[in-house]
Amino acid sequence: MAVPSFSSSPVPVSVPVFCAEGDPMKVLISQYIAQRHADTISQTAPDLALVPFVPTQPLPEEGQEAEVAFLSDDLIVMLHTAAGLPTTPPWISHLPELPRLRWVHTCSAGVDDPLFQRLLDRGVLLTNAIGVRRIPIAQTVLLMMLYFVRALPRYLAAQREHRWDPGWGEELTDKTVGIVGLGHIGQEVARLAKALGMQVIATKRRQVDVEWVDQLLPPSQLPHLLSRADFVVISVALTPETRGLFGAREFTLMKPSAYLINVARGAIVQEAALITALQTGQIAGAYLDVFETEPLPPSSPLYDLPNVVITPHCCDASPLNEARDLQLFLENLSRFRQGESLLNVVRSL
User: Fold this and answer.
1) Which listed residue (36, 191, 224, 294) is catalytic?
2) Cβ pair 113, 79 in contact under 8 A
3) In the beta sheet, which residues pair with residue 70?
4) Which of 60, 168, 192, 323 is the S-S candidate for 151 at Cβ 3.0 to 4.6 Å?
5) Mean pLDDT of 13-40
């Protein structure tokens, strides 16, 4: 299966390898990944000792000596959807305490879970999957922009009511998309938007020339972006600076005809203010894949708003992700064993 290469530049790091002669380096992987890809991993590094684990069961004894942990997507999905429930691996919170652990790779792009801060505090090298899921996420963003602009909500309502209601819909051509956070996902959204004839403006901390972007703004110019955009796409990382970034003031600045699309983190948007903006017509609608509280409580008004589309934190879903995840892990595993710089190193949170 062909998968795209990764453009992230290696970050120079010191990679200590604690693997004495005759004592193979132990790598924690889920049983699911072991069953599907153990042969591929062994071909890359035949001298490793893979330690498979079942996420819902205690960590195997040999896992206590692991130097590397691969937090694959099957485990990350469980952590996202079952936090605090009995199915959460009981040992995962103790991962930073493994005495020989030196490197953890997570198949999540977001690393806002407290577990990752604890790993960094202990000096464990952390890499993530930033950029790996940019393709399905960006395609979902384009899907939702087309859904709204081509008047699909109106047609679907007419279909449910057995009505014939022709003649509606616009184009994305010459519409403006404002991308808040021009990382891997934002750049892929920009590329696809340009292919459909859209104008692209974006905010980014570092002011560099970015292909497919007509105007690049510093974060301080967010109000200007909001006033111009027909679609506002949130793809910025959750940080202390971006937590609660979108509130009542920001929705007031948006066009009444504009749509909000959030594929980043729910905490970036003040949900109560968003609900008010949607109910009062301050903005035209929203597509939301992430929420302040997940799972979204059944009592949330968002479920019943006709101008809102909800997906359960899964806009990155794709059968191609597993191959991409594994490719990145194997590349970094080879670098780690040779003491070279790794891709996608998380320096700080």
Assistant:
1) 294
2) yes
3) 105
4) 168
5) 74
Q: Which CATH superfamily is domain 134-310 in?
A: NAD(P)-binding Rossmann-like Domain (3.40.50.720)
Q: In this structure, which amino acid lies at residue 284?
A: A
Q: What is the DSSP letter of 63?
A: G
37, 133, 313, 324: which is the annotated catalytic residue?
313
Tell the CATH superfamily of the 26-132+319-337 domain.
NAD(P)-binding Rossmann-like Domain (3.40.50.720)
In this prediction, residue 80 carries a pLDDT of: 56
Counting Cβ atoms within 10 Å, is residue 280 exposed (0-12), middle (13-18) or buried (19+)? exposed
**Residue 271 — very low, low, confident or very high, per pLDDT cuts 50/70/90?**
very high
- Give CA–CA dist 44/26, Å, rounded: 14
Given this model, what pLDDT does residue 55 score? 79
Nearest to 264 by CA among 297, 289, 292: 289
What the block records as the tokens of 249 is: 């003031």
331 in active site: no
315/326 Cα distance (integer angstroms): 20
Rounded to 10 deg, the angle between the 321-337 and 31-44 helix axes is 50
Known catalytic residue at 61: no
At residue 207, does pLDDT exceed 90? Answer: no
- Close Cβ partners of 330 (under 8 Å, ≥ 6 residues apart): 40, 41, 44
Q: How far is CA 332 from the centre of its chain?
A: 20
- Look up 243 and say whether it is catalytic: no
CATH 3.40.50.720 in the chain, residues? Answer: 26-132+319-337, 134-310
Report the C-alpha gap between 281 and 171 in whole angstroms. Answer: 22
Helices 73-81/321-337 angle, 10° precision: 110
SS3 of residue 323 by DSSP = helix
Task: Collapse the DSSP code of 269 into the 3-class scheme (helix H, G, I; strand E, B; otherwise coil) and give the result.
Answer: strand
% of residues, the chain, pLDDT over 90? 78
Mean pLDDT, range 255-273, rounded to an integer: 98
Half-sphere exposure in the Cβ direction for 187 (13 Å, CA):
12
Nearest CA among 60, 75, 80, 62 for reference residue 30: 75
Among candidate residues 265, 271, 322, 324, the one labeled active-site is: 265
